[in-house]
Amino acid sequence: MNKDRLGAFMDAVIAIIMTILVLELEKPSEPTLEAFCNLKINFATYALSFLWLAAMWMSIHNAWHEVEQISNRTIWLGMGLLFFASLFPYATSLVATYFTSKVVQGFYGIVVIATTVMMMLIYSSLEKDDNRENVVKYMKRVNGFLAVDVLIKVLCAVLGVLFWPPLVSIGVLAAAVFIMVVRKKA
User: Fold this and answer.
1) pLDDT attached to residue 182
2) Per-residue pLDDT tens digits for 79-121
3) CA distances to 11, 77, 89, 163, 186 from 80, in Å
4) DSSP letters of 151-169?
5) DSSP 8-state code for residue 29
6) Nearest residue to 72 (alpha-carbon basis) of 127, 12, 2
7) Degrees (nearest 5) of the Cα angle 161, 167, 173?
8) What's the mean pLDDT in 133-154?
9) Nearest to 156 by CA among 106, 115, 114, 121
10) Residue ranges of the domains in the chain?
11) CATH topology of domain 3-185
12) CA atoms of 66 and 153, how far apart (whole Å)
């Protein structure tokens, strides 16, 4: 399969996932500023998931520019990535409703971590698909960033589930900021 075809498919699915995120936002109980303010957790979780998905899309988009070819392994890993990413609207909706639940925040953490691990597997696969030196170097560098990203998420997920559930969402935000700052400098 042409890498552009897979890239276009992934772009479309991620765009749909991001659109569903906004459709899942709870409506205010009445058309007042206070009613909107009461939904601050909903808007914050929406913004966090949207930001994370946008960063993921940008990262994958950059990877497609580096490689010339992809394998069936990469295609299937891409489907795995989209599977976990498709759980974002559901997990985000749960977090918005049950923000302090250990189970819900733990589920959100699992979705985010699984999606990130799939990205790492894709980068490793792309490294094998196109073993030119510049591609291998790029994929290894990005996977190094993602290893730190996963470490932050796992640490915050464990601490969140054990002690203070919102720490899971805070860890996702911290990891997203880390990736955006590091990628900008790299």
Assistant:
1) 80
2) 999 999 999 999 999 999 999 999 999 999 999 999 999 999 9
3) 14, 5, 16, 31, 27
4) HHHHHHHHHHHHT-THHHH
5) S
6) 2
7) 130
8) 95
9) 106
10) 3-185
11) I/LWEQ domain (1.20.1410)
12) 27
